[in-house]
Amino acid sequence: MRVMQCGIGHLPGGCWRTMGLHCVLILWLFSGLAVGFKQGDNVTLYVNKVGPYHNPQETYHYYTLPVCRPEKVHHKSLSLGEVLDGDRMAESLYHIRFKENVEKKTLCHLTLSEKQVDQLREAIEELYYFEFVLDDIPIWGFVGYIEESGFLPHSHKVGLWTHLDFNIEFNGDSVIFANVSVKDVKPVPLEEGAGLAVGGVGVGGGTLTVIHTYSVHWFESSLPHARRAERLRDYSFFPKTLEIHWLSIINSLVLVVLLLGFVIIILMRVLKNDFARYNVEEEGGCDDLDQGDNGWKIIHTEVFRFPPYKSLLCAMLGVGAQFLTLATGIIVMALLGMFNVHRHGAINSAAIVLYALTSCVSGYVSCRFYTQINGQRWVWNIILTSSLFSAPLFFTWSVVNSIHWWCGSTQALPATTVLLLLGAWVLVGFPLTVIGGIMGKNRAGSFQAPCRTRSIPRQIPTQPWYKHTAVHMAIGGFLPFSAISVELYYIFATVWGREHYTLYGILLCVFAILLSVGACISVALTYFLLSGEDYRWWWRSVLSTGSTGLFIFVYSVFYYRNRSSMSGLVQTTEFFGYSLLTALVFSLMLGSVSFWASLAFIRYIYRSLKMD
């Protein structure tokens, strides 16, 4: 095989108890235990994957390259998160025994054909790296060596590493850290001509014979097993780009605090003046308040008129509440130390489980509010809620997974994993959405509007340009995005790079600030909208702050072009496909938060008027 380069409402107590029990189960599943070894015990080294250095999500099985391999390949049983992460671990020919050094032991004799030499040359020129796993510790190294020198004449040299030095640190009976080195090792040159290489162990008949060897050196460490993740974080095979610029983060926090203070103070002063002007002695009832008045008070009989497309609005609010719960759960689990660098794919597994379990949140919130605003087709509402995100996710995954499968990447999910994920949605996610929807419908109650709504809609005056939807979306999307722009780079460098994100405390603070800014901006924009006697605030409140997702997608384009070296069909499709889904998640989540903030604000100001 040749190396291919493609190019919220209140939830019922039972729901919370069920989710609590499952979270305890998740904590137990992800809890790691130290593996103890005795002198001379076999320490299994698994080979995992290879891929271009600059394309983190484009990976292939290690044995797709012409390397030393056993006659029968035995694969390791993997967790769901490891499979989703593209891991395909298999046993290797390396024999490593606990605390026993080995010096230049022969791994295998390998005779490479012309085609295999060309395959290795192509992989090395694409900066292919490999990943091994030893006691859950990832070990990285480059497949070969490439050197460009001179202009006239130009020199282009490609070499294959045929000897690896394994350096392993231990403490007591535990493995603490492991890496691989090629220091003082001379690579075997792979010259142009596929098989006519000079410098290998044997050349003849259009083939190249090489001998792969390895050494093992053990070093004692004082670091306890519980803290071995710190040792891996300090290792620098991949460049350290997550240098935390505290000044930038503090600057962002200060700007956000000033912004929130400005909005709150201005609104409080304006509302105070409005209340002082409106709350005069009224002779008539609630329906007579609009005689000779203007501003937001005059539309009190219109502001609670239910919007069009009720079912879609409620589905967006429900799914947004679900992702709000999901994001909070992931951050809390991270703060509890459940996602360290040795638990391969733990965050993927947690996200899948929590997404299925929190489906009851989306069903409950959506159907409850849909019933409150006099929605009649509650069954359709539940179906729409369950498919609002899962349908785009399935479509995006189908396209991305098909490209991975076509290119032979390990990121392509096996059929068993696909059936498992589909079963999780069919047997857990969708039923919980239905159960939550039925409970929300039965517990809906009335809408609780402070004023009655007239049967004939009032005509809306012509609005100035700065009160149009596009302008509000630009303002409401840019300000929350500016609050997270610094942290967003670190998140992208983690998801689309090779970094291990550990600043979950800062992430929690930024997440809270993001929600606070979104709520405050939505309230401010809603007030300005009502002041112009425009009562179409329902969808506007969702779209204004929900447009943050558009800014995040634009940033992803900027990151791809200017902050990364990604290329090729596989990596590009995955990056932009899942970046679109990320933008959708932020839009739904922030749209839900901004809607509930605007609704609470409108109820407050109209309830505070003296309407005798």
Q: What would you say this structure looks like, in words?
A:
The structure is a single chain. By secondary structure, the protein is an alpha+beta fold. The chain has 3 domains: 36-234, no CATH class; 239-278 and 468-607, no CATH class; 309-447, no CATH class. Helix content is 49%, strand content 14%. The chain contains 16 helices and 13 strands. It has helices spanning 13-30, 80-84, 114-125, 228-234, 246-278, 310-335, 346-357, 359-372, 378-387, 390-407, 415-442, 469-495, 504-531, 537-546, 548-562, 569-607, and strands at residues 45-52, 60-61, 90-91, 102-112, 128-134, 137-142, 144-149, 155-160, 163-171, 174-181, 188-189, 202-204, 207-220. Strands 1, 2, 3, 5 and 6 form a 5-stranded antiparallel sheet that branches. Strands 4, 9, 10, 12 and 13 form a 5-stranded mixed sheet that branches. It has a 3-stranded antiparallel sheet with strand order 7-8-11, covered by helices on one side. Strand 7 and strand 8 form a beta hairpin. Helix 6 (310-335) runs antiparallel to helix 8 (359-372), helix 6 (310-335) crosses helix 16 and helix 12 runs parallel beside helix 14 (537-546). The longest helix has 39 residues, at 569-607. The termini are far apart.
